[in-house]
Amino acid sequence: QICTMSRNHIIKLYYDIISPYSFIGFETLLRYRVVWPIDVVLKPICLGGLFKDVGNPPPVTTCDAKAVYMAKEVQMIARHYGIPLNMPKNFHDYVLKASTVDACRLILATQKLLPDKTEEVSRQLFDRFWIDNLPVNREDDLLSCLKKAHVESPDKFIEKIKEPEIKDQLKKNTKEAQDLGAFGLPWIEVTKAGGGSEIYFGSDRLPIIGEFIGQSYHGPLRHLSLF
Amino acid sequence: HTVKLYYDIVSPYSFIGFESLLRYRVVWPIDVILKPICLGGLFKDVGNTPPAKSCEAKATYMAREIEMISRHFGVPMNVPKNFTGHIMDNSTVDACRLIIATQRSDPDKAETVSRQLFSRFWIENLPVKSDDDLKKVRNLIALKYFANSQVLKKSLITNVAEMLDQVKAEEVKEELRRNTKEVQEMGAFGMPWITVTKSDGSGTEQYFGSDRLPIIGEFIGQSYHGPLRHLSLF
């Protein structure tokens, strides 16, 4: 008899801690593993690098009205998904002045040293930046996130992020997203178990992704929120 | 609940927002007020760049995304090969004025005229500019070749010449400017722009884009029922 157990659909999520829509996409997509047969592969990238390489000005800089609306919209969508995101007073300055490059490298270091903790480390970094509104660029910031993620020997991870291999991996992920046509985040690539793939930009595409893989959209699944 | 939809024919996401929102009148207790605006004017006034111009990768993705989302909603949009050229080189100001003219003389037809204009521009990929030189019209038969006269005929409007004249009327031009300024003052920088005022007066919320039906539903205490493709008029 032929084994009819179907493989999961593979979803690659490209994200950066600096991107609030990435936080929303990250939480909601991972939540859907409960109801859809999907595997989610986490791919941190450097959004600043991507913007530069594709010649895209950060959306918050296009015009004042857009920056004002984005700050409102992020909170509205986060609430809809049961994510207690807090918008700092000056959204524009907050995202333009902060660095999350080391934070993304930390996620990569975790993928290398302790892959099962990749999701939790990502979540702690997102929480710190988008709920606590604290920086994630200094060693102490990163140590705090590693401790909250219950990662043992955190100093090993801090050392790891300085290695060329990790820096290269971040560049590789960023180029990978760019080659898929990305110009912003989150960027999602869905490959069906039976073959065929599609790409999506943003955190609003779960209903359409569902249709692509033959599944139903079940709303924000707030009861599955980890907050 | 009162929903105001600000839109421009040139905006593909406006077409998706228009169709999907109007469809939801069947399942939600909403009234939809149509507010055509001039998107080019709005972009200029708020200093925003048309999204298709921000970078090449974005324009490429938008073309693909529009076909994907429109199919999800059962609206058979066609994105021309030269997507950026189509939206940058074709004026829809006359088209929006035509909708306003219809609202003033035959308000029940405003929705159909809007739909015909959207279909012409985004399914047939044909221009929606009125012929500026109506004086060149030797007889009424020549009118049938004008883009917007075809739109009016498909909308079962009989006083075609009169309506095309109205497109040039100062009050109509003024109303388009007024609508555009109205949406700008609400903070709009792009289309579609949707305001929702709850029937008990307990609040108003604003939304940008054609992806917010689930969230709008929650705001007014209703459930989102998906794309409702079986209600598509195409």
Automatic annotation (TrEMBL), chain A:
One of the protein's GO biological processes: glutathione metabolic process
One function term, GO molecular function aspect: glutathione transferase activity
Cellular compartments per GO CC: mitochondrion; peroxisome
InterPro entries listed in its UniProt record: DSBA-like_thioredoxin_dom, GST_Kappa/NadH, HCCAis_GSTk, Thioredoxin-like_sf
PANTHER family: GLUTATHIONE S-TRANSFERASE KAPPA (PTHR42943), GLUTATHIONE S-TRANSFERASE KAPPA 1 (PTHR42943:SF2)
Ranges where the DSBA-like thioredoxin domain occurs: 11-208
Protein name: DSBA-like thioredoxin domain-containing protein
The organism's place on the tree of life at top rank: Eukaryota
Catalytic-site annotation from UniProt: 19
TrEMBL record, chain B:
GO molecular function: glutathione peroxidase activity; glutathione transferase activity
GO terms for biological process, alphabetical: glutathione metabolic process
Catalytic residues as annotated in Swiss-Prot or TrEMBL: 11 (nucleophile)
The DSBA-like thioredoxin domain, residue ranges: 2-215
GO cellular component: mitochondrion; peroxisome
InterPro entries given in the database record: DSBA-like_thioredoxin_dom, GST_Kappa/NadH, HCCAis_GSTk, Thioredoxin-like_sf
PANTHER family membership: GLUTATHIONE S-TRANSFERASE KAPPA, GLUTATHIONE S-TRANSFERASE KAPPA 1
Name under which the protein is recorded: DSBA-like thioredoxin domain-containing protein
Organism: Pristionchus fissidentatus
Lineage: Eukaryota, Metazoa, Ecdysozoa, Nematoda, Chromadorea
